[in-house]
Structure formats: structure tokens, C-alpha cells
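Sanity check

After download, print the first record. It should look like this:
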Amino acid sequence: MIGIEGQPVLTAAEMRAAEDAVIATGVSVEMLMERAGTAIAGAVRRLAGANEVLILCGPGNNGGDGYVAARVLAEMGIAVRVAALSEPKTDAAKSARAGWLGPVETLAAAKPAPILVDALFGTGLTRPLDASTTPTLNRSPADAGAQSKPLGTPLELSWAPASAGERSVVECLHSLANAAQLSIAIDLPSGLATDSGRALSTPPVFDLTLALGAIKPAHLLQPAARYCGQIHLLDIGVPTVSQAEVLKTPSLPTPGPDSHKYTRGMVAIIAGTMSGASDLAALAAMRAGAGYVTLLGDSEGPPHALVRMPFSDYALANERIGALVIGPGLGRDDAAKARLEAALTSGHPLIIDGDALRLLDPDRIKALDVPVILTPHSGEFDVLFGKSNADKITRAREAATRANAIVVFKGADTVIAAPDGRVRIAPGASDWLSTAGTGDVLAGAIGAMLAARLDPLDAACAGVWLHGDAARRLGAAFIADDLAEALRSARASL
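Expected C-alpha cells:
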């Protein structure tokens, strides 16, 4: 099993294309299925110990992976049972089913086991597992051309009402998962949309998901990610590459003997009507490692290392400013608009957050000849770029291209996008970040990274990583002031 940090993130179509490229070299679908099932069996063996394993197999290639895993586990001497939703549909799945010599129970009649493995649908599902119905395979003539499709190809299903007393797929899955000591999903928990992260049906929350070949958007995007539990990657011999990757631990510069406050980076923060927000951003920039932080506007109090100055064109003209943060507590009145305009014409690299995002025209910043990082949450994003039903990765990528800026689309599934199409997706953040001021802390942390002369995408990624790591260190019920202070420990861990 492989950790997901820094791994490529592939959509369902991209994963199929990667598999097709391997198949074009002479590797059959059956061989890929054998690799996947063997890798699954090895992972389950390490986790299951001597406990009995129940594998739920669907009609497609995800189910085929399950049959292979069952056979290999049995060969290892593990007690394993198989329950199937229906007979296999694809040639590869039929071959895998033929290799399993044990009995096959029906899903509805399956009894629980200590270890549950969900190999019902995985990636490629396009329809809900309707809680009031059970699936039957569509036996249309079109199926004839689908028999040898690669792993992950969506199945066409029709739906028939459940008979009296018969449990639905969703009910069966929840019942068996709840009764298990350990629940494992293969590639994805059944019922999730691979690319959008939507829950087509509500699966149980799994303890572990074993991603086959590559991480998928649904492993990281909400609400799907909340059902995946821990995520580990299994190598199935399919080379993958993508402009989208899982956020990884940054490699940050540390001060040397010749360092001074300006080489470490100077951050300026423009205050507004709510000085507490800009104070938080300033404290965060300091704790994240900036050498010099100045707050421009009306504010007073500790820390004494923070340089406070009235907002003025003179203060803004300081050529040593490596990053200018505007938005936290700015307000939306005429004075706020004037300060935003001054920031946009200052010539300094910019982090634009909070209120400033609601005053901004994205086309206004497209022509700026300085790095710009935008940090909207979902409401600010909708105001700035408009609402859309597209998935979060697509929206962030399109917004970055439109604004010619780095876009940090914040949330429990933060997506960071660059104008050239590169995307970094943060694994699940602490739910306790849902408190006032944590976004101001993030803006300050990113400001410190940008002032340290990191590439703008790297600066945004480093700030998001530090922010998330600080939150994990704090545990429960912290406030934004605690989070800003905890950035010091997060930075010191690198």
C-alpha cells in the first residue's frame, strides 16, 4: 500500500485512457484484473489477520477484481466468502468468477463477517443505488460491445422494484458494513461519482479505501471523501500522469548565517474596518516564518514585533514588500474600494482574500504583471466567478485561467489551481476549521510563503499545508488565534 501524498489524481476517463495505453502494449484486461485482485488480496491479508473476509462482488470489472482477490486470499489460507449482486457482465469479470471455486451467496442473503470488502461498483458509476430498488443488468444488444471494455468502464444498469421483504443494495451494504470490524472499499465506496465527488447514493463510512492505480477526485472532494476513510494506493502496473496531484508536504527554505529579516521576506497587510481579522493575518505571517510583517491601518496591541503604520501611499511604496495581503476585515465601503485599488496598482505580489474578493472584477487582475493569489471560500467564489454545477476541480481550474491567478478554492476539500492547468488538492481538513478567522490565518500564511519568493503555486500549496497541519496539531475546539500560533509548530516540523 502506498501513501497518497503527491500522487497524480485521475478522472475516470483519464484512468481508462491509462489502462488502454497498457492494454495496447499487449497486456490484457484479464491480466490487469489479476494484478488488481492480487494487490487487493495482499492488502486485505495484512489487515485481516486470521479473521473471516466477506467480499461483495458487482457485475462489472470491480466485481471481477473482488473474485480474483477472493481466490488469492483463499490460496493464502484465509477464510473468505463471496456474495454477488448478480452474475458478471464483462468477459474479464466472467473469467475471474470462473477462477473462484467457492460458493457465491446472494447479496441480500449474505451474513456479516469481521472484514467486509466492497467490490460492487467502484469507479464509473453514473446512477444512484436507489434505496427502494434493486439493480438488474441491462441485457440490451449494446452489451455485446461492452464485454471487453477496460477496468472502470461504466456499466449500464436498469432498475427493478425490490420484491416484498427484499433489501435494497444500499440497505445490504450498510447492514454488512455496520456489522463488520473493518470495512474496506475497492477503488471507491459503491454509490459515489468518481469525478465530481457527489454521493449518488449514501454509502456507509468505510474504514479504508484501496485506490487502484491512481487517486481519483472522489477520494478528495466532498461529500464523497467523507465516506472513504483512510485512503491507500495500490500499484497495478498502470503508469499514470496528471496535472492534478494530491497536496504534499512542502520543502521550505530555512534561514542561514547570512539571512536577515528582508531575505526571509517582508509581508504587508492592509487593515480595514475589522482590525482583528488583519491582526490574525499578520500574526499568521509572522508565525509561518516571514522576517518582517507590517500592518497598514488602524490597529494596536501585541505582538510588539509587528510593525504598525498608518495606511498611506508612502507605506505602500516600500520596494521591500514581497507580498501584500488585502481583504481580511477590509469592509466593502468606499474606503475599502480605494485601498483595494491602491493594492492593485502597487506593483507588489498580491494575496486577495475576504471582503476584497467581493469588490473585485476578475478581469481587472488578469492583466496585472505581478503574481496574484485569490483565496475564496464557496460563497466568495460564486460572487467572483459565478455559480456552476461543474465539479470543484473544474471550477477552480477555469477560474485560475480566467483571472490569470492562483486560485485557492477553500473548504473541507481545498483545491489550488494555476492558470496553466496545474491543480493540487488537499486531503481532508479538520472540521474544527469551521470557525471565524481561520481564513484570515490562511491568507497570512500564504503571504509569508509568497514573500519568501516561492513560486506562486508552491507558495499557495505551502500555506494550505501549514494551515492544515496546524489545525491537526490543535485537535478540537480551537479558535483562529490558536491556529495562527500553531503555525510555528507546523513550520518547525519541516
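If your output differs, re-run the checksum step. Summary of this record's structure: Residues 12-245 form a domain with the Rossmann fold fold (CATH 3.40.50.10260).
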